[in-house]
Every structure is written in C-alpha cells, then in structure tokens.
Structures
1.
Amino acid sequence: MKITGAKVFVGGPGKNYVTLKIETDQGVYGLGDGTLNNRETLTAKYLQDYLIPCLIGMDPRNSEDIWQYFYRGAYFRRGPIAMAAFGAIDMALWDIKGKLANLPLYQLFGGKSRNGAMVYAHATGADLPDLMDSVARYVDQGYKAVRVQCGIPGMPTASYAVPEQAGSNTDYITDFSGIRPKEEIWDSGRYMRYMPGALAEIRDRFGPDLHILHDVHHRLLPREAAEFAKEVEPVKLFWLEDPTPAEDQDALRMIRQHSTVPIAIGEVFNSIWDCNKLIQNELIDFIRVAVTYAGGITHVKRIVDLAGLHHVRTGFHGAPSHSPLCMAAQAHLNAWAPNFGIQEYLVLGTPECDALFPSAHKMENGLFHVSDAPGLGVDFDETEAARYEYKAGSHPIVRLEDGTLWNY
Ligand code: CS2
Ligand code: MG
C-alpha cells in the first residue's frame, strides 16, 4: 500500500484550520489537523515543502516508522511548527489505519474505558455578576464542569479571555485578528487581591457539585502562584491552570510545597521532553497537551502512558484553535485513556463548521460521546473549504502598567 498524494487546506469559518488530506493507492484517505494558532501558514509550508514530498510512496500503515523518520530526520528536534506538522500527518495515518480496520480509533488503542468523557465549558464575565450569569447558562445546559474567567476591578484593560462589557454572552473572548498584536495591561496585585474572593462566591452560589476550573494563563511568578494556590484551596477547584509560565519546570515545586490545589499545565508543550520532569516528579495533576501541537496520536499516547504511571490525568487543550479533527483524535484517546481527566470543549458545532467537517460525534449533558465511525470519524468537504481563505492573526501581548512586557 502506498501514499499517492497529500494536500493541505488553510482556512475555515472564523479560524484558519490547517487540514491535511493524505491519499492512497487503495482509495482510502486520511485527515489530520495541523492548525498552529496564529502561525497557521508555517505548518502548511513545512508540510508542503518538506514532508509531503517524502511521504509520497511510503506505506501509510507504518505510522510509527514515519513518525520517527520525520522527527529524527528534522535534526532540529521538537518545536511547535514541526510538531504540529508531524501531528497532522500522524493523525491522518491513524485515520487511514482505522478505516482499513473498519474500526473507530479508540478500539485500536484498547477499547472504551468510559461511556462519555466529561468536558468543561468556558464561562466568562466582564464582572462577577456577568460571570455568574455565564456559569448559570452552562449549568442549565447540563455541563458538569465550567472554567471561570472574570474581569478584575481596576484593571486598565479587559484581561485574559474576558469581555470588555457585561452581557456579551460569549463563551470565549479573544480577538486575534490582525498581524500586529492587540495589547492588554495586567496587574498581578489587583488580580491576586480580587480573584480568590470571586472564586469563593462562585462556589457558594453553585454548590459543591459543580467542577470549577480557572486559568491563570501564565501570569504569576512562582511565589505569587504559591500564595494564590494556597488562598484558593478552600474553593476546591477542579484545577488551577498555568499558574506560571511552565518552561521553568522546577518553579512548580514552590506551588506544590504550599498548596494541594490540583495543577494543570501543558497547552504550549509540544513534546514529552517538555513535561517528563513535571510528570515524573508529580508536580502537576493534569497534562494539557493537544494532539496537534504535540506531534499527533503516536507521541501524545506516550505522554498519556507516562502520565498514568504518576497519577497525572489528561485534560487536553481544546480551545477553538483546534479543528474538529484534533478534537476527534482527542475524543478517541479520551474514550480509551485509563487516566482520563477532563476535556476542554468549546462549541465548534456552528452550521458552517459542521458542513466543513461532518461527523457523528456528539456532546450531551456535559459528556462527549465518540462516534463508532471508522478512523477519526470526521470527514472534510473540499467544496465547502473553497469558500474560505487565510486571515492573518496574532496573540495579544501583555504589559504591566509601567510598560514592562509580561506573559499573555
Ligand atoms: C487557553 C487557550 O484554552 C485555554 O486554556 O489558555 O485558549 C490559549 O489562550 C489559546 O489556545 C492560545 O492560542
Ligand atoms: Mg489555558
């Protein structure tokens, strides 16, 4: 069996999805997601110029060897662009494998370990009452877990993922449009004084059963994060996410020594080497890698297995930057993984997105149910794809009030 061709599409409804389609001499094709948020054309170019020419003629069933070929062959290892490109190929090869076996991918991993995978939604508010309304809407829809992000009084601009004005009813707020980044102003002091009380009020209002998550988005220093984590302990968060920028893995010790709040990290990681110490030293509770950014199913499955040895559960990234293909790859891993924790979930199911990526996967009452279609269980409509074109975007940058550059 041979790979006869591969095409890359960039574009989508409101997002520049990078979609790879690998074709074979047996008529079976595979699909993969290579969307690297706000740097989408780079993965596409890497695939087109360097990887696809080598793929032609390879046997698509040898997904492990193909992964090693590209990873070792790059010489300059890891990095988000390369790993997202390998991720797209790997996902597409697993899709082909599943279609050849006529089995959904979770069956190839070891079958189902649960009936449905718990997801969490994004509640946001310009202020606390606005946030409470947003949480209530998700609770009414049956969500069992909600991430809460709140505007901070006195903060000069809206901070990470919160709207400027109350009543916007949006579940995810970040305007990435334009090449020149938008700017946000941040003040850790105001945040640390306000947010623990806000979290406590949310717990009081919604009771003990709701799983409450919060994302610090890399904004605190290790000592501040330790203080914050200690203070929010009574709220019994499901997790506290990215309290510090996680490239300093040892910094996490400080938080651990002061608090038992569960820590989730990893959405910016792209290999097992970015998180092996965090996992082996049991400094985190949830690993947040995404199947696209971290080199595909082959590599992420290794991370999941390592995590399982150390009581670390999965909490895969699921921001809208990932296409339904990545979300499907994650859904199959979530159905199988003995150490599954939770899945981040933003409503992708707009009619436009469903038309571009038809699938029978479904979310109901806060649980994601993976379909039994062979492979990833998501298709791609090329005619629909022709409607969209690439639109440049950038992540915002963050400064302190005196102008010092900080972490988005
Ligand atoms: C966020 C992300 O979903 C999350 O937890 O931290 O939305 C992140 O800001 C974006 O994916 C950046 O591309
Ligand atoms: Mg996050």
2.
Amino acid sequence: MQEKINDLLRRVEEFAPKAAAEIEEFRIKMMGKKGEITALMEEFKSVAPELKREYGQRINALKQTTLAKINALKEEAAAKVEEEVKIEDMSRPGSAEQLGSRHPISIVKNEICEIFSRLGYTIADGPEIEDDRHVFSSLNFPPEHPARDMQDTFFIEKISNEPNVNDILLRTHTSSIQVRTMEHQKPPIRVICPGRVFRNEAISYRAHCIFHQIEGLYIDRNVSFADLKQSLLYFAKELFGEKTQIRMRPSYFPFTEPSAEVDVSCNLCGGKGCPVCKGTGWLEILGCGMVDPNVLTANGIDPNEYSGFAFGMGVERIAMLKFGVKDLRLYFENDVRFLHQFDSVL
Ligand code: DAH
C-alpha cells in the first residue's frame, strides 16, 4: 500500500498538462468515482487496525496534495485564458475613459470675455489678497462705508492703527483690478477683469462667501453714457439672444456717478412675466456707471481730459439665468451628476 501511495504522489507531482482539458481528466482519473485514489480508500478498509491511523493520515495527505495541485493548475489556466482574450480579441470595443468637462462658471466667464474681446477689450488680472487702497480707498469709498465692515469683508491683517489704512483683506469685488490697471496703464484703457471674490455672507441658495465677478472699464476722451448703454445692449444681445432688451435703473456705487443697475428682458418668458423674473419680465444682471472723477484723480488720470465707464456683474447669477440653475451652491459642490449636464455646452 505504501508503494501505491508513493507512486500516486510522484505522478501527481510530475503531472504537467499540455492543455487545460487534461486537468479535469486527471482529476477524474484520480479522484472520480472510479479513480485511483478513491480505489485506495477501498483497500484501506482491509488494513490492519494498528496501521489504520498511519495509513489514514498518508492517504489524506495524498488527497490534499492532489486537490491543491489541480486547483492551482485550473487557476493558472483561467488566468491564461483571460490574458489571451485580452491580447487576441482585437475587435472587442475599448473601455471608454471618463472625460471631464468645463465647469458652467468657466463656460459663462469665457463667453462673456469673448463677447467683450470682440469690442476690443483685453483681459486684466489682479491678486485675490488685496489692500484697502485697491479695494476701497482708491474707489472713493468713504472711511465709514458699510462694505468695509467686518460683516462683509474678510480682513487678514491690520497693519496701521489709523482706520482702514493698509488693511490686508480678501477682495470683495473685482473693481480692485480697475485700480491696478489705471496704475500701470495710461488711457485709452479698455479692460475686462474676471476673478474670484470673497464676502462674509451666510451660504444659501442665492449667496456664497466665494463667487465670481467680471468687471469692465473703458477710459478715453469723450466717453459718454450713451457709449455705456450701447456696449451693454450689444453684450446682452450676444449673451441672451438677439431679441433681448435692456433697461437701466438709477442706482448708487461710490466709484461711479451717475450709477445704474441694468436689467435684461427675461429670456425665459420673453418679458411676459414668469416665476424666474417674479412676474416683472426683467432680470437684474449688472451694476454700472460713469467712473467718478474722484476715482480718476486718485489714480493719476485727469478727469478734465478723460472720462470713462465701468460695469460689474456676478458670473454665478448670469450662469443661473442662462442655464436655469436654481441653487447657487451646486456650483461649488462638484457633483459630477450636475457637472455632466454641461458636457455639450462649450
Ligand atoms: N463692484 C460692484 C459690486 O461688487 C459691482 C459694480 C457696480 C462694478 C458698478 C462696477 C460698477 O464697475 O460700475 O457689487
């Protein structure tokens, strides 16, 4: 019996199939109902009782070795099949890579910049961490103006004991880039300034502490309010469609005089009145005005020689109107289910 066990062990160890089908054949030959190892169990019944324990253990070890070998060979064969399929089946469709898409805020920002570049504007940039002078003082904000209040502005550092002077803060609007442009450039100036701005606001469906603005500035000889109005009408028609109309309402900004807020006719209901325009037929999109002479003087430009206009708008708001997005927080959550809805808009 010992000889038989040794012989079977040797054959198991030496077994090297040439094809995967031989593995199952071998298993049946050894361990099937009529298999050689199965037959050994029959023989085992007649082994002398004092030897049963020893032979029992040996036969068990033989069985386990055989099973382990067969399983290992089967796994190997399966892996090989997979590998062969990978290499050989050139006609299998490829697995698609997930592509990213442009963020709706970038889409709208690029479109606005493009419209103004057709009017001869160039793009200007500025830092997000600013000082009081560029964000407030040079823009004719009186020292006690509420926008400087802690509730609106994120202050970073207070450098001087004098009120407001040299405070370091996160810019609350992109109008600071106006100031930086006037510092480095003599008129004629025609710039568009996109950027991120920061305000200490409670986050809700219509407000966020981080958002995007686009500022425009045009300074030259004889720039008039009519130029401002015509430029904005062109812009509104390009952005919302040929039928779009604008209206201007008197407003107040420290850096412009006179100032206005601009509404466009509601692109959803065509001006008839709907829930988006709250029944008015108009949607507010931007603030604008003629640059205040104090701002020109503060930035080294003679108001007797030059005049100009400026305007500023929130990109989130315009993207909401353009795409019908009802909750501004969606822009910041980066949920791909939201972002993929803009795949086809470029
Ligand atoms: N800076 C203003 C804001 O943050 C927007 C604005 C209004 C900019 C009128 C302008 C302007 O240049 O003329 O609300």
3.
Amino acid sequence: MILVDQEQRIFTLQTSNTTYQMKADTFNVLLHAYYGPRVEADMTYLIRRADRSHTPNPDEAGTNRSYSLDTMPQEYSTCGVGDYRIPSIEMEQADGSHAMDLRYTGYEVRKGKYTLEGLPTFFGQEAETLVISLEDPASHVAVELYYGVFEEEDLITRAAKIVNRSGEPVKLLKAVSACLDFPYAAPMDWITFNGRHMMERCPSRAALNPGVQSVASTRGLSSHQNNPSVVICRPDAAEDHGLCYGAVLLYSGNFEIAAERAQVEDCRLVLGIHPHHFCWNLAPGESFQTPEAAFVCSPNGFGQMSCQFHRAIRKHLLRDPYENRRRPVLVNNWEATMWDFNADKLVEIAEAAAPLGVEMLVMDDGWFGDRDDDYRALGDWTVDQRKLPGGLEALVPRIQALGMKFGIWIEPEMINEDSDLYRQHPDWALAIPGRAMTRGRSQLVLDFSRRDVRDYIYNTLKAVISSADIAYIKWDANRTLATVWSAQLPASRQGELYHRYVLGVYEMLDWFRRDFPEILIEGCCGGGGRFDAGMLYYTPQIWLSDNTDAVDRLRIQYGSSFFYPVCTMGAHVSAVPNGGTRRTTPLETRGVVAMSGTFGYEMDLSETTAEEQEIMRRQTAFFKEHYDLIQRGDYYRLTDPFADGPFTAWEQVSQDRREVLASVVTGTTRANPAFQMLYLRGLDPDLRYRDQEGNVYTGAALMAGGYPLSLDLFLGDYQSRQIYLKAE
Ligand code: GLA
C-alpha cells in the first residue's frame, strides 16, 4: 500500500511486515525517514539534526548550521553541494561543473508495477508504483525515483530515471539504482557473496566499519567473483532472528554495491551500474534509465528474508510459461564427452537416460563449425555435418523417438579468431585499434552494442533453432570483457559501451522469447559468472557453477539460496572422482544435492552399472513425486556448510506446512559417532508428522527437540538422507 500525506509530504510504503517512509522537507529535500518492521506511524522524528561542524549548509538554511545534506538521511544522495558521503548521481554539467542538487517537485501513484524499457524488472498487477520527481534547480536536470511495492512478499523495488531538461548536452558519470540511508549509529554487519570460477557466491560477513566498503564487477558481466546482492543486518541477526535487509540489483553487467559508515556512525548503501568507464551522453530532452534494485527487510532473520525473495522471484520475476511449468529432468553430454561426440553417441546417452526417467537430452558445446576444441569456430553457427550428418533434422527425431525432448547449447556473444565470421568481420569483436588484443579462453567478445552484429547472430541461430523441435537452449558466455571499444561509436560515446552491451544481450534474449515462447532458456557463464536477478527475468534457470562436486555444491547452493530460489539453480549429478576436485562422493549424495536445484545428470549414462541405474531411477522418481515441495516449498537453511559441522542440512516446507523434506549430507566420518539432532523449522507445532519409517512426531517436538538422525548416517564419508515428513 502507498500512503501519501499531502500536507506533510510524507510518503509511506507499507508491505505485510515492513514500512518504508520518506519526506519532502521545507527546502524540498527528499529525506529518508525509516525502513524497517511495519509501523503505522509518522517516523519522521528519526530525521534528526545537529551542528556537526565542517558540514556545509545549503543556502536556504541561512544561519542554521544544523541543517546539512552531509548528515541528514537522503533518498537519492547528491553530488558537489555538500553531502560528502557516497553520491547517487554524478554528472558533468554543460558548464563543466559536477554539481548536482536535487529538490522535490511532485509525485504520482499508479496501480500496477512500473516497467523499464529494455531492462529486467519485477512485475505484477497487484503491485503499486510511486514516482517521485526531483530536479536540480540550477541545471534543470531531473531525476524520477520509481518505487514498486509488493505487499505480500515484503518486496520494495527501486529505479531512477535521469532526464535532461537543461536545454544543453550533459554527461552522466554515475547514477545508482537506489540509495538507502540508515540514519542511526547501530552497529551493522554486511554479508557479501564472493568467490571465483567453480566456487561462486560464498557468503562473507563483516562489520560495517568507518569508511567505504564495496563489492563490484568491472568484468562486463555480474561475475563469478562478486554477486550483485548483499545483506545488511544487525550483528545479532541469524537465520531465525534479528533485523536484516536483503538487496539485489537486477543487472548483469558492471555493478557496484557500496556501503559507507560515515562520521556520525550512520550508514549509506548504494547499488547501481559501476562508474568505471561509464559516461552516458544526454542530449537535451534525452533520459537515462537505471536498472532496478529490490529490497526485502526481515525483522526475523535471514530465513524469512530468503523466503520472501524466493516467493517474489518465482511469482514476479520468472516469466511465463516457466514460472510454474515443470522443467524437465535433463542429461547434458558436456562432462561425458566434451567436444568429442557425434549423433550416435548422443543417441546412446539418450537411450541409457530414457528408462531412468530423464526427460531431455541437452547437446552441449561442439556441434557447430569445426568446433573440436575451444580454440575455434565460435561465431560459425552451422551444424557440423561430420558429427551430425543430416543436421538437427536427423538427430532430434531420434531423441524424440525415445520419448525425450531435445536441448542445445549456444554462446551467442562470443567469437574465435579462427572462425569464418571473424575472417569476414574482424571489427565485430571488441578491440581497441592500436592496442594488443586480450583473449579469454582463446576467444573474443562480439560487440553486442551493435544492432547489425546482433541481427546477424540472431538470424543464424534462429535458422538452426527453427530447423528442429527444440525445447531448451543453454545460453553460455565464457569470458569477461576487456579492451572495450566499439567501431561503431564515436570517441565521446565509448563510455556507453559496457551498458549498451548488456542492453544488447537483454534484447536478443527477448527476441528468443518472442519467437520461441515455449523454449526454456538456461543461462550460463562458465557456470555461475552471470547468476543474477537480471538474467533470471530472461532465463528462469541458470547453471549455478561449473563445479559439480557435491560437497562444494553444498556451499555454493547455500550461498546462492540467500536470494535465489531452488528452481533457478541449475544442478546436475556428475561422475566421480569429480573432474574439478578429484573427490568421490556416493551417487545417492550427488542426487540429494542436485535435487535441490533444477536436477539432471551430466555424465555418460551409457557407462553406468545396473546398480547405479537403479539408484538413478529412484532419484528421478523421488524428484518428480516431490517436485512441487522441492521447487516451491519454503526453503530453510538448517546448518552452515562453511562451519564444517558434522553435517549440512536444509529443508523445504509446503505452503500449507503439511509436507516437509529435510536433506542431510554428512562430512568426513569419525568412529563411534555422537547422536545428532536435526532441528526443523517452519512446521505447524500442533500437527503430527509421520516420517518414511512410520515414526510420528509433533511439529513442536521436531522444532524444539529435533529429529533424531540415525547413527549409520555418520559412518562413511559424505553420506546423505532425505527425510520426508507428512502431516497425518
Ligand atoms: C562452460 C559451461 C559448461 C560447458 C562449457 C562448454 O564452461 O559452464 O557447462 O557448457 O562451457 O564449452
């Protein structure tokens, strides 16, 4: 609900459990008053003032030295006019100055959720929109602040639009999506999600100390190294208690999330496009739209915050038809064959997979041009007739005859120098004339800011995809951007290229959705290098990581689950010893872990034993039977796999709380193991739950006393168990 007190100029955003409030003051400065647990009150008493000295005062304040932009909580912080904390916006005005003041000029409330042209957003008719208009009185450059309110999910979205009404050209050097001030001195932690290829989104928690701390990507992609998501919380906050705020940026390119603990211990958080090599030219009348940021505040710890994000993403970010439709259990040939396959080999894998309950074969990298390794052929999107005689027209019916669907891997944004496309169009790759080239996986990046490049790539891919009945696309991107320069942009516009690249990727993804609405697209970026809320708008699932080791995956899935729901996490069972870690884990355990994702296999199923096949048959049957609970249940992290305890556990609870699936994976074994209890969460205390062995416990008992884990689970390394409980 959006409440506007027109007289006091107080704007209140109410969700089921939270309240967000701001006020336009007498000088028309838009001040942030409150964001936290729901209250029905005027919270503007929290906007306090004091003369802190060495904090300048705006002209209107006259001799009142306690009024300073530098110490008061701002909704969208300005630049060069006296607030020295992190600016939300920075411009080069027509006169060369960098000053940007912002004053309130009006507001508008709209039914339904705003959309942003060319950019991903949460959507929903049941949501409401507030637009607040601000303007720089000197230059007349305006900023429109967008707020989306999703009551049930406690989700508040934000974005900003910068409109050049100055009558002269200006340059935008920075414009964040959202700024959130915490105007008090409470100690705060922040949790960021960091890592590297094969070890993405590991949570890292630290106190917000004086000065600026940030996580960012300047790689052109949201990156393996830092995820565009962050939690800010009280030091006592944990899974089931304490005040916390989750924030995500719906953006897949360069980003920066920065937090500043300022002089009087207040905190500021900003999220937006990274200012590195960003310079957007705004001619008179033109505007720039920032990506969207989204927040959930939870008064009750990280568990509730995650549940609300999961619900919001499932319901308001994943688009038709895949927000609710069952996704197929798949087998992908990558780890089985890499580039060394042909049609018969794929059919052999599919023949082994079909009786196990696998529903789709995905043909990975290696089907096009002369792609026998990763040194050649990216850009040449024609079927390799040596490997696939007769093309997809011949192959796909053979897979379908087994009762399976067919999916295909593509990497549209990339090009190898050893390709026909590069030989014809060397200027289509990002490179700086006169400067040596930077390669990644021996490949270059296509200039996706160019319409002609996008059109060509799209049309060649469309021809392949239209040539057969394709149910799924895996969209990969296997390097980061460097030597960023476009042959089609003048020098003065090269600073627009990083963002134009992202817009180009989004646009082509939308072309696929428009022309092939039934195709499920899975995102991928060397595993999880572009696993962000922006991509999820286009690709409802994303390959979580190239690391398929079950034990490492526990950690990656744990970190990812703070924001992203199970149904978005691409996860497969692969062969052992694992290619990335050389670790051997039981097949049952690999299944339990992959099942808390989209689920599938990534191994040569034609080389498995009868005993293994029996286990897999049970796995796919169990997954399908409990699909709704696994994919749409409320998700609880029961232990922290980074803490190296005796086991890792998590849980899914159905919306009506009558069904529960708890998954447990143990670590390395020790003789004579202790009794371990599993403390369940989110149950109905009064219901009686029956497990697979027929034991019955009340919800209250399972939450307070715990579920007794059997001793044999702790004998042998990396054992696992799925405990399914149903209310009587
Ligand atoms: C990336 C992906 C893998 C696989 C290979 C193919 O690394 O993450 O899953 O598709 O590319 O080259």
